[in-house]
């Protein structure tokens, strides 16, 4: 369900590319995506726990550590956006300025990286190969699609040149020390 929502959102966004339209559509899209992602994570967790799968040779406590790192990262990102961006990373209160400091100086999507670290940690803690495969094969591409198709365009509309400059100097996912030169367009 998320993929059609993303493409419909993008189409509506491009039809009327104003800040007001971007705010409205993003609020609606965020709530829908939270419902669909939340439902999918719950279903995948139940399935991963109840289905036999291949054993994982990584100790489950390492999953707990990764979950804590991911969770703490998410909390820091929320604080970062509240303090520097005057808002939140989701529909409750959209940020009013482009945040380029703290974790956002290293990557444009630290919230996503924290969430993925948490989910991979959850799969390791549960020792569920099926859950890990779901996160990597299904969830990661859907998140990438959401960010590339909808969110980047929405941020370009809301923040204009400030976001385009930030986007040009900061990697989408793989963190890089702020100020280091990109190595040729890596994601």
Quick take:
This protein has 187 residues and is mostly helical. The protein has helices spanning 2-15, 19-50, 60-84, 110-126, 129-159, 161-169. It has a single domain (2-169), classed as Four Helix Bundle (Hemerythrin (Met), subunit A).
Topology:
Blueprint: H1 2-15, H2 19-50, H3 60-84, H4 110-126, H5 129-159, H6 161-169
Helix pairs in contact: 1-2, 1-5, 2-5, 3-4, 4-5, 5-6
How widely separated are the two ends? 25 Å
Oligomer: single chain
Model regions low in confidence, pLDDT < 50 over at least 5 residues: none
Biggest β-sheet: count, sense, barrel?
none
Helix content: 55-70%
Q: If classified by CATH, what would the architecture be?
A: Up-down Bundle
């Amino acid at each position: 369900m998320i993929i059609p929502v993303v493409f419909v959102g993008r189409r509506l966004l491009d039809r009327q590319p104003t800040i007001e339209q971007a705010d409205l559509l993003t609020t609606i899209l965020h709530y829908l995506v939270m419902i669909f992602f939340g439902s999918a994570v719950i279903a995948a967790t139940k399935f991963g726990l109840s289905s036999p799968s291949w054993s994982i040779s990584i100790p489950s406590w390492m999953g707990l550590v990764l979950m804590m790192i991911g969770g703490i990262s998410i909390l820091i990102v929320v604080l970062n956006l509240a303090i520097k961006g005057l808002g939140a990373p989701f529909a409750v209160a959209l940020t009013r300025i482009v945040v380029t400091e703290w974790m956002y100086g290293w990557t444009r999507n630290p919230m996503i990286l924290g969430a993925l670290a948490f989910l991979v940690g959850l799969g390791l803690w549960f020792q569920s190969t099926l859950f890990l495969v779901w996160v990597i094969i299904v969830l990661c591409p859907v998140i990438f699609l959401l960010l590339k198709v909808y969110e980047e365009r929405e941020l370009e509309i809301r923040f204009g040149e400030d976001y385009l400059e930030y986007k040009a100097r900061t990697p989408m996912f793989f963190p890089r020390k702020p100020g280091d030169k990109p190595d040729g367009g890596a994601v």
